[in-house]
Design goal:
Number of helices: 8
Keywords: Membrane, Transmembrane, Transmembrane helix
Protein name: Carotenoid biosynthesis protein
Low-confidence stretches: 1-13
Distance between the termini: 69 Å
Structural class: mainly alpha
Pfam families: Caroten_synth
Number of strands: 4
Mean pLDDT: 92
InterPro entries: CruF-like
Strand content: under 5%
Length: about 230
């Protein structure tokens, strides 16, 4: 029932203090930096990196949870986008592992944690994170939607290029004959572009203060490890 009292005013929309928001952002960045720097030092300098590798799934979950927390409007549409992207990412990896048609012939190791159908559940979370970050970062460019989708796809594939040498070294996954096929990057480009077009056609707030930091942190982490361990 609408209010008829002329003195009534609706509750004010809560306003987040900018200083509190900045503190929250700096705290999240500090936590992530601690995890990634610790992981980098452990994997780069430890004689037995297995202790640090057991925390890889936890690190991915923490990163995903913080990205999700900094999404401004967690609408039903955004939740549906997130779930759909993670499921599609997981299923294409299942198809990839079982057929070798999408990315080439590969198998997953133990590092990414629990598997279903020979595929780690965390790989779906990884596809969501990369797709989401690519979508958010592409919003910084004033361009037509498809151009943004292409840019976001290149950001996703570029990060995968940095991940691959580290992944094969630390038992994330293993390629047949120990050679990373070019087919892998073509498959990633195709799937990532489809997901970016889907993201562009989905109406949710495509803004996240933490996303640029996370993307840069992951890029430096994997590029640095790949360069250092050559």
């Amino acid at each position: 029932m609408p209010h008829t009292d002329p003195t009534y005013s609706p509750p004010a929309t809560p306003v987040i203090d900018p200083a509190a928001r900045r503190r929250r952002l700096r705290l999240a960045q500090g936590v992530l930096l601690l995890f990634y720097v610790t992981g980098f030092l452990g994997l780069a300098f430890s004689q037995d990196p297995s202790f640090f590798l057991q925390f890889v799934p936890l690190n991915l979950l923490l990163t995903a949870a913080l990205l999700f927390a900094f999404q401004p409007n967690k609408s039903g549409v955004f939740i549906a986008f997130s779930v759909t992207t993670a499921i599609v990412g997981f299923l294409v990896e299942v198809l990839g592992v079982r057929t070798g048609l999408l990315f080439g012939e590969y198998t997953y190791g133990a590092t990414l944690g629990w598997k279903v159908l020979e595929t780690p559940l965390m790989i779906g979370v990884n596809w969501w994170m990369l797709t989401y970050m690519g979508t958010v970062l592409s919003r910084y460019v004033q361009a037509p939607e498809f151009v943004r989708a292409l840019l976001a796809t290149l950001l996703v594939v570029g990060l995968d290029v940095c991940i691959e040498p580290v992944a094969v070294r630390f038992d994330f996954w293993e390629w047949r004959y120990h050679i990373i096929p070019f087919q892998n990057f073509k498959g990633w480009f195709a799937i990532a572009l489809i997901l970016q077009v889907y993201a562009n056609r989905t109406s949710f707030t495509k803004r996240n203060e933490l996303a640029p930091f996370v993307y840069l942190l992951m890029l430096l982490f994997f590029f640095g490890l790949g360069f250092f361990l050559k």
